[in-house]
Specification:
It is a single-pass type II membrane protein. By secondary structure, the chain is of the alpha+beta class. Helices cover 43% and strands 30% of the residues.
């Protein structure tokens, strides 16, 4: 996901088709990156479409995150 965040431009769309467990994990990751979940569809497998937002962490967010993990 870090590589997708680096490559994909803001407002770009990322579509994943996989099993429901993998879709759930990816959805958690993209939400933590502040991406917008546009579509989730499940049956035997799942489809997830997300759109990258313009959000970037501020200096305070970065410092708080680093301190919280220490």
């Amino acid at each position: 996901m870090a590589e997708m965040d680096r490559i994909l431009r803001p407002q770009g769309t990322f579509i994943v088709r996989d099993d429901n467990e993998t879709i759930g994990e990816i959805e958690k990751m993209v939400k933590s990156l502040k991406w917008d979940v546009r579509m989730t569809q499940s049956k035997d497998g799942g489809v997830l479409a997300v759109q990258k937002s313009w959000w970037r962490p501020t200096e305070v967010d970065t410092i708080t995150s680093a301190i919280a993990k220490a």
